[in-house]
Amino acid sequence: xxxxxxxxxxxDTVKAEVLPALGCTEPVSVGLAAAIAREKLGQLPQAIQVQxxxxxxxxxxxxxxxxxxxxxxxxxxxxGVVGGDATAGLEVFHGLTAAHVQQAKVYLEQQQVxxxxxxxxxxxxxxxxxxxxxxxVKVTIADEHTKVVSIEEDGITTFIREPVSTTTQNTAPxxxxxxxxxxxxxxxATDVPLADIAFIEQSKxxxxxxxxEGLSAEYGLQVGATLKRHVDRGLINGGLLxxxxxxxxxxxxxRMGGAMLPAMSNSGSGNQGIAATxxxxxxxxxxxxxxxxxxRALMLSHLLAIYIKHHQHKLxxxxxxxxxxxxxxxxxxxxxxxxxxxxxxxxxxxxxDVAGVICDGAKNxxxxxxxxxxxxxxxxxxxxxxxxxxxGEEGIVANDVDSSIRNLSALANDAMTHTDQQILNIMxxxxx
Length: 432
Known about the structure:
Layout: H1 5-17, E1 20-21, H2 25-41, E2 47-52, H3 54-60, H4 73-83, H5 98-109, E3 113-117, E4 125-131, E5 136-142, E6 148-153, E7 156-160, H6 182-191, H7 194-197, H8 201-216, H9 223-233, H10 240-256, E8 263-264, H11 270-286, H12 291-310, H13 320-335, H14 340-354, H15 366-385, H16 401-415, H17 417-431
């Protein structure tokens, strides 16, 4: 390990933020809170009450819960109660069986699950209360998808990690040093001993398995499979760009379509993990990159995605798939022989291209945004190795990459908060 004190922090941060996740992580938070509450209650409840932050509601309304074939937070809570693994974190639903799903559906049919938005300044909040004839248990997860901040049994708090009062500190909990820069990340990814980052290969293993699943079955909107079919029909050409788009989208198709396979997530999101992984994996295959080059490109991609997300709220109106794919743009540019300057160009061009793509909840159509972001990453990388990029005279892009990232994050954190509320209002009105 190099004497640079940041390097171990970088490794620790990636290990904390790049984790297996089965299903969309907002319903997972509800399912995990429900599973923990069920364990504390010691019996199946008669009623389930779910309260969530507006952003969590937005990301949980229209996405399938793995293994259930159903969308939404109500089935996530019920499935967490009857079959969730309280010790499995983001993979809480890994042990669901058909019997569990049938039992969970009974809760919904008998209207024993109530889901509501609560008034909170927390961006990410999932609170599940279970009621039996004599007892009640309330579990609150906040700020991170698996962070239990309080447990209340029969009206008495038995565990509290921090005050559950509202907070305006909603940025991602990454432990990156405040002085870290894109240059620091580049130097780390390209120079760190390979053995220290070998673990990042698991992101390729998990997300490539999801991609193959998405190409082989009818999940979601079949974005990846549709593109592959039209290549076979001769309507579009195959090649690197098409494969980057289709294979990235296919992983998201499977994930959002309820496949019982985990994604390797990034910053609490499986789609962000896919966007930071699959374009790099496909490019490495085409370029016949060595295993070392692949691992370094994946580490560069995932750590840069975390760095960018670190500047933003955990959940917002800005589609985080686009920012995660900025990591892939860096990774692909590295594989193409680019140095720090070209990597900076690629990220700046990505910001100039996809800034402002909205997040209107987790759903099947996320695969389309994954495909758009993957294509933008490839396009920006090809421009960058020819030393072409969006300049600091254009839009929100600055003359250096770190300032460009801060400008994008200011847009997401401040100006787009009203957009976020309007998106939720539209979605709630549609659901009524």
